[in-house]
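re: that complex we talked abt at group meeting.

here r the seqs, copy pasted straight from the sheet so there may be weird spacing, ignore it
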Amino acid sequence: MRIVTWNVNSLNARLGRVERWLQTFEPDVLCLQETKLADDAFPALTFEALGYETFHHGQGQWNGVAILSRVGIENPIGGFGDGGNPDPDARIAWATCGGVRVASCYVPNGRSLDHEHYQYKLRWLDRLAADLDGQCTPADDVVVCGDFNIAPDDRDVYDPAKFATETHASAAEREKIQTLLDWGLVDVFREHHDDGGLYSWWDYRGGNFHKKLGMRIDLLLTTRSVADRVAVTLVDRNERKGPKDDPPSDHAPVLIDGTR
DNA sequence: ATGGTCGTTTGACGA
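got the structure back, here u go
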């Protein structure tokens, strides 16, 4: 299975790129974040023509997540599947694809450590962990992926000192990732690459991409059974490049691939 | 080490 996560920062703005990327890489499952579309504006037919079933959970203007699959989509859920109050933001979609329970997540940014949105982010991650535990066991084939807006450790940021007072690298956020790992998920890209400087997001401003100033915040967290079958993990940095008339997302796709 | 950039939109705001 080849499974990919990609924050596209508007699917309208990125549709041509996504179509070309699907044809080049032929993933079995593609999880998208920040589609910024309402459900009735999601281009399902475009993806169907390329051989993909889709499930989109959107709200318009902001947020929006999707799962594209050419190995089936079963039991889709838009939002948390815990039966609690609906999240007003469209930030998570679940579906079972080829026997793997998949979540496409767009974790709240947090904005700043003293902002209410940061508390929302921490609570959102608690709810994700509970939702995961309610739907799956660590013995299942599970992939929880997406834009976590968290760099799991200091190798994943270009300047740890700078981020000591900012979101994305705080101890509280990293503890939420650790909770998911303790439950039984594996940061499978990190399992394959020890080096720092391997990022998935670069700020549009200041030429940060070309200066190699980024963060690894797009993660594929898988159960052990999935991680043991993964042979290749990569970030498609080339997709972060491109001309002004066909600009890239500020995130690159992150891919895992393995046997079966 | 910061922002000077994007995308939503047509004035800011979010990332």
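couple things i noticed - The longest helix of chain A spans residues 116-135. Residues 9-10, 12-13, 34, 36, 60-62, 109, 111, 149, 159, 162, 203-208, 213, 247, 249-250 of chain A lie near DNA strand B (CB under 10 Å from a C1').
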